[in-house]
Write a structure and sequence with these properties.
α14 packs antiparallel against α15. The chain has four domains: about 90 residues, Orthogonal Bundle (Fumarate Reductase Iron-sulfur Protein, Chain B, domain 2), CATH 1.10.1060.10; about 55 residues, no CATH class; about 130 residues, Up-down Bundle (Glutathione S-transferase Yfyf (Class Pi), Chain A, domain 2), CATH 1.20.1050.140; about 120 residues, 3-Layer(aba) Sandwich (Rossmann fold). The chain is built from 22 helices and twelve strands. The protein has about 425 residues and is an alpha/beta fold. The N and C termini lie far apart (about 60 Å). β1 and β2 form a beta hairpin. The strands form three sheets. The chain has a five-stranded mixed sheet with strand order 4-6-5-7-8. A four-stranded parallel sheet has the order 10-9-11-12, with helices on both faces. Strands 1-2-3 form a three-stranded antiparallel sheet. The structure holds iron/sulfur cluster (SF4) (2 copies). One iron/sulfur cluster (SF4) binds next to α2 and α5. GO terms for molecular function: 4 iron, 4 sulfur cluster binding; glycolate dehydrogenase activity; metal ion binding. Its EC number is 1.1.99.14. This is Glycolate oxidase iron-sulfur subunit. It holds the Pfam family Fer4_8. It comes from Desulfosporosinus hippei DSM 8344.
Length: about 425
């Protein structure tokens, strides 16, 4: 039985918890709130009360389960091996089954399933975004703030919507002269609509390594925003659509440059579809050939070192939770950075501590998200670097917001952008 179908599925996981409180030491929510409900142990107790029938899943309970960035730090610090990531997903899905989805989330996830409508909305948004967003001068990126506080954090800095989506900028198949491999690129929403610069860097690096790139136009959102918010129906619809889109085009491997998207392809699609024999087999097949871009470049290609040009950057690396703890990828991005001539890698304190973004968490709990971000920003500042590299567009957004608000001139990039820059310089020379 999947965690998405019943709260009973986590009974065993709940029984493993001996209430030692070790999770308190690493929980970013507990660090800020100092409240038992913020930490894994507190939410485990709530789930136990609900399962035993001592209390009901009320709206208030659902709100308490929203207090988690799903960073998985508690998983790794738990002496009993409690998989809290499974508990929180099951609890949120139960909250939606019992109390329904909040209207704003219902509208957002419905739009995500209607790809043409969503594309049209984003296109219109890219034209009229100036009405809601005010440009802020920044020499590295096009950034903006909300003109009016709509309750998602007045100080939050956003990237501007791209005038042209990544998927409309490129053909479905990008050919190279002598292809070593044919690779599908799952762009994810943030790279398709906002951070097209990351997408262009992925494509440039793959082409530089003689790889044919396939970008199915019919791919959709990875569905992680829906699954972590308990909307299992929407998450399943999106998982099926993505599997069919890539199966139709065919590829030797699939690459992702977003940590949530990578988790979806490697783990979540299979779990969501485990009751459908045919789709589960398809999800498992693609899970085996899905790679984060850094993992792919280190272990599958490996990427060309000749032709790399000098990039004079002092770089610190922030580890996305769903890349590091979710997929076990930590040394690969560092290996890439260390291979680039001129790059000096300087580690920050606790590079794997959550940045506080966590998708919709930062919109639902903007103040808390901001406090968690402030700690990360302070750690970045002490490295005295000029660049933060990371492996996820959502972390990039949060880190950009943090450094912009702290008023220091740090550029925030995806690791693959720095590699693409190095190839670019190499070609010029
Ligand atoms: S560290 Fe593990 S066993 Fe201890 S309270 Fe937290 S979840 Fe329970
Ligand atoms: S997943 Fe992260 S935020 Fe959620 S309870 Fe565990 S440590 Fe805290």
């Amino acid at each position: 039985m999947s965690v998405y179908d019943s709260l009973d599925s986590i009974t065993e996981e709940l029984h493993k918890c001996m209430k030692c409180g070790n999770c308190m030491a690493v929980c970013p929510i507990y660090k800020e709130t100092r409240q038992e409900v913020g930490v894994a142990r507190g939410k485990i107790s709530l789930a136990e009360y609900i399962l035993s029938g001592e209390t009901e899943m009320t709206k208030g309970m659902g709100d308490r389960f929203s207090l988690c960035t799903t960073c998985m730090a508690c998983n790794t610090n738990c002496p009993c091996g409690v998989r809290f990531d499974k508990i929180i997903l099951a609890a949120r899905a139960e909250a939606v089954r019992k109390k329904g989805l909040q209207s704003a989330k219902k509208i957002a996830f419905t739009a995500l399933k209607m790809q043409r409508v969503f594309d049209f909305g984003m296109k219109a948004g890219s034209i009229f975004q100036g009405i809601a967003l005010k440009n802020i001068p920044n020499r590295h990126s096009k950034l903006a703030r909300m003109r009016v506080d709509v309750g998602i954090g007045k100080e939050k800095v956003f990237p501007m919507l791209s005038k042209k989506t990544l998927r409309s900028e490129f053909p479905e198949v990008i050919k190279v002269k002598t292809p070593k491999m044919r690779v599908g690129f799952f762009t994810g929403c943030m790279i398709n609509y906002f951070y097209t610069d990351i997408g262009r860097a992925v494509i440039a690096v793959l082409r530089e390594n003689d790889i044919e790139v396939v970008i199915p136009k019919s791919q959709a959102c990875c569905g992680i925003p829906a699954s972590v918010n308990g909307d299992v129906v929407s998450a399943r619809t999106l998982a099926k659509r993505n599997l069919r889109a890539f199966e139709r085009m065919g590829a030797d491997a699939l690459v992702v440059a977003c940590s949530s998207g990578g988790t979806a392809w490697k783990h979540v699609f299979g779990e969501l579809l485990e009751n459908d024999h045919e789709l589960k087999a398809l999800a498992d097949k693609w899970a085996k050939k899905s790679y984060d871009i850094s993992e792919f470049l280190i272990h599958q290609v490996p990427f060309k070192k000749e032709g790399l040009g000098r990039v004079a950057r002092k770089v610190t690396y922030h580890e996305p939770c769903h890349l590091n703890r979710g997929q076990g990828i930590s040394k690969e991005p560092r290996e890439i950075l260390k291979s680039i001539p001129g790059v000096e890698l300087i580690e920050m304190k606790e590079p794997g501590r959550c940045c506080g973004m966590a998708g919709s968490f930062s919109l639902v709990h903007p103040d808390l998200s901001g406090q968690i971000s402030d700690r990360k920003t302070a750690d970045i500042q002490t490295t005295k670097t000029d660049t933060v590299a990371t492996g996820c567009p959502a972390c990039r957004l949060q880190l950009q917001s943090g450094v912009e608000n702290a008023g220091f001139d740090e550029e925030v990039l995806h690791t693959v952008q720095i590699l693409a820059e190095s190839y670019r310089v190499g070609r010029k020379n």
